[in-house]
Amino acid sequence: FSSPSSSRTRIKVDAERKKTFVLKMPMELTQSRIQKIWLPNDNRPALPRRSCGPQLTNSPTVIVMVGLPARGKTYISKKLTRYLNWIGVPTKVFNVGEYRREAVKHYSSYDFFRPDNEEAMKVRRQCALAALRDVKLYLTEEAGQIAVFDATNTTRERRGMILNFAKENGFKVFFIESVCNDPTVVATNVMEVKLSSPDYRDCNSTDAMEDFMKRINCYQASYQPLDPDDYDRELSLIKVIDVGRRFLVNRVQDHIQSRIVYYLMNIHVQPRTIYLCRHGESEFNLKGKIGGDSGLSNRGKKFAVALNKFVEEQNLKDLKVWTSQLKRTIQTAEALQLPYEQWKALNEIDAGVCEEMTYEDIREQHPEEFALRDQDKYYYRYPSGESYQDLVQRLEPVIMELERQENVLVICHQAVMRCLLAYFLDKSADEMPYLKCPLHTVLKLTPVAYGCRVESISLNIEAVNTHRERPEEAKKGPNPLMRRNSVTPLASPEPTKKPRINSFEEHVAVSSALPGCVPQEVPTQMPGQ
Amino acid sequence: SPARELTQNPLQKTWEPYDNGLPAGHSAQRGVCMTNCPTLIVMVGLPARGKTYISKKLTRYLNWIGVPTKEFNVGQYRRDLVKKYKSFEFFLPDNEEGLKIRKQCALAALNDVRQYLSEENGHVAVFDATNTTRERRETIYKFGEENGYKTFFVESVCVDPEVIAANIVQVKLGSPDYVNCSNDEATEDFMKRIECYKNSYETLDETLDKDLSYIKIMDVGRSYLVNRVMDHIQSRIVYYLMNIHVTPRSIYLCRHGESELNLKGRIGGDPGLSVRGKEFAKSLAQFINEQNIKDLKVWTSQMKRTIQTAEALGVPYEQWKVLNEIDAGVCEEMTYEEIQENYPLEFALRDQDKYRYRYPKGESYEDLVQRLEPVIMELERQENVLVICHQAVMRCLLAYFLDKPAEQLPYLKCPLHTVLKLTPVAYG
């Protein structure tokens, strides 16, 4: 038996075209044990060609925020980062203001931002450079795919500097400018997120507001908005005008930029509430069986009635109700006597050959599968079924529509609810399969400042507990050999706070909340419906 | 009052409430129609700016994802009324007779729009005409308001003479209007026709039209201006328009090589290639090589048989789970004989409505279209792509490209070991 390569390949040289064409025998494939992905036997996971899912982009991208203070740049940065991480694109925000706060321990007043304050200008520039240094580290050495550079970036000079930086490093650049001249909006923003900023820790609201408005003024004179008709016609950018009333989009280069544009065009800032809950307890729940399409138990029906009462008490304007296409969620919705929409995409995770079994059955009949699932619950795909990773992909359109909507109640299932919750609460892939989503409990999510407030409301109807804790042996974190495959939500990493102002020449190791595995390449999968 | 009983629709396997034995309201399937009112899309732009190209493509896409859509081309109405086109003079702004006829045609088309949206269950109507004056657009907008339609404008702006010349060559020279003209005569006449519109052209304006919902497409998609997107369907339309391009390219569709289960007449499963299937893979490699395609992307499903096929090509490929074959649920790995024997009712139902029929614990073609939509969107973004997939999946993709309706989709011919090469040309 000769060496594998020679028995498998014949090389044919095409003299005319001067290129070698390798005729291979279709190679033997093996199915990976956890993710059930078919790979050629010469499995070299680092090879880009073996990507398991559509590639969203080849080069890393720097997203550059542009706009006066209090225009929602940080809001957009954080939200977009959360979304990109959830769909599996490693993304991180670099907020220059935070670098400044580290460098200049105490903020005294808007004087710091006056354009004639040379000392401060120096410090601010150093902070921007330090942040860019960290951007480079993240994108070239930490497997980051997208870095969001969150600062005003209001001058052409500054943007030119960033473009040069990106060019030197082979990064794509995409600008997101937020333009808003409505004084009400600006004032609301200042109240929501500025008054509570560390800068104004020792101020009362009135003083803080006054100071901040003067701060904005410092930028006005030198503000050069993006000009896609002329000066900036070669740049890739989106201009968000008046909180999403209008958009100007120029030269979208690739898939991920197209997705970013679509996301930005669908989000809004109207106050609203999202309610997540599971169907009432089902007959299968009572028997400890997973999956299937059973109806509600008696207690489940009671929950549906209680849910109806709860919804009425919430006294909401225009509540949309969504269910899956499985009987138990629909039965639950029926008790509400409101119109509801059935989404197949909200169906529970498909347990494949394990459908309708109890965990004991699975342990008995498929002991290896049982163990594998506990090893890596996020990536684990049931034989002929799905994984949490697959779920995220099919739930992406649900998330997109939730962003468009206002008040919505989603009646779904345990695994599905965990995925949705992970999106709203910025939980990582590692945490997602263990989020607590008990039966007969409603989670009420309200957007607030830069995140989401969550209230857990139990409707006090008894039900079985379907939650399985992470087993002890699996608590050490994700398998470092696991390929960061398609759709791997990372919790948006904590922003890097350490300043680099004192040592431009050295790199200080950056701590961040990335999980243990750092794959060489991060192919990501585009969500389906 | 007690909760209504649910019954499972035997064809689609969806649970529906029943009230005293009659299907009751209250629940909607999350189809793709996410709008309550019908939508009127109004094209805007000088001649040869791609309005009809966009209208037809958008209509094809919306129908494929399940939104009943129809285009109404006013030029077509004009050709039906004025049997023979003489020259550009018909379009001169001071040609009173011409203006009268053109207005008549526009109104006739709007009347048909009203019939389609209000009486024939249409959801979206695409009104394809120049609509270059504010006055004309106001008339249409009022018409929409009176009838309870949402109006969305799509304007195409382009000043690049090369693009315009290329458009004329692609679609105008072959128009019925110029059936007896030489190419040069036709081009000259058409350029004069464009001139007739220029003086009165009022582009959608940031201030004057600030309350309208619209997208302005500039220079064939280099940049876009989007104003006041009102609802989900408008958002999807914008996303689609921003992803399509006109760069020439080819899309290759084929199935995996013959599989072990194909040989046994069994459906579904995750088998490997048969000996002949492996031969096909090698032939496919040779075929691709001979096509000498620039930057070909290769996509497969996550099933063994498509991956094995791609492996033979010796080029990078991407695995998409959403390209997996239709899930036959309880019928997986059965032969059709076994299905007929064990599930005679299911077998009969499938033949009754193959598009909507969902296997028990499986999928329908309708489900497939939903999960394939991101593939279509990415295919629109890409250039040269080879998709190695499966029979039902390939039928869905083919139906999109060839504008085949749901009734025909499940019967499109997609034999093994055959490659379909699709190249965009003119309007199709």
UniProtKB/TrEMBL annotation, chain A:
Keywords from the named record: ATP-binding, Hydrolase, Kinase, Multifunctional enzyme, Nucleotide-binding, Phosphoprotein, Transferase
Gene Ontology CC terms, in alphabetical order: cytosol
Location of the region described as Disordered in the Swiss-Prot/TrEMBL record: 466-503
Active site: H279 (tele-phosphohistidine intermediate), E348 (proton donor/acceptor)
SMART domains reported for this sequence: PGAM (SM00855)
Biological processes annotated in GO: fructose 2,6-bisphosphate metabolic process; fructose metabolic process
Span of domain 6-phosphofructo-2-kinase: 50-271
Name of the protein in its database record: F263 bisphosphatase
Organism: Cepphus grylle (Black guillemot)
Automatic annotation (TrEMBL), chain B:
InterPro entries in the record: 6Pfruct_kin, 6Phosfructo_kin, His_Pase_superF_clade-1, His_PPase_superfam, P-loop_NTPase, PG/BPGM_mutase_AS
Binding residues annotated for substrate, in chain numbering: R255, H256, G257, E258, S259, E260, L261, N262, R305
SMART domains in UniProt: PGAM (SM00855)
Top-rank taxon: Eukaryota
Annotated ranges, domain 6-phosphofructo-2-kinase: 34-248
Entry keywords, A to Z: ATP-binding, Hydrolase, Kinase, Multifunctional enzyme, Nucleotide-binding, Phosphoprotein, Transferase
GO molecular function: 6-phosphofructo-2-kinase activity; ATP binding; fructose-2,6-bisphosphate 2-phosphatase activity
UniProt xrefs under Pfam families: 6PF2K, His_Phos_1
Gene Ontology biological process: fructose 2,6-bisphosphate metabolic process; fructose metabolic process
Catalytic residue positions: H256 (tele-phosphohistidine intermediate), E325 (proton donor/acceptor)
Key word Glycosyltransferase present: no
One GO CC annotation: cytosol
The keyword Kinase is annotated on this UniProt entry: yes
Family the UniProt entry places it in: In the C-terminal section; belongs to the phosphoglycerate mutase family.
UniProt protein name: F264 bisphosphatase
Biological source species: Cepphus grylle
Gene it is expressed from: Pfkfb4
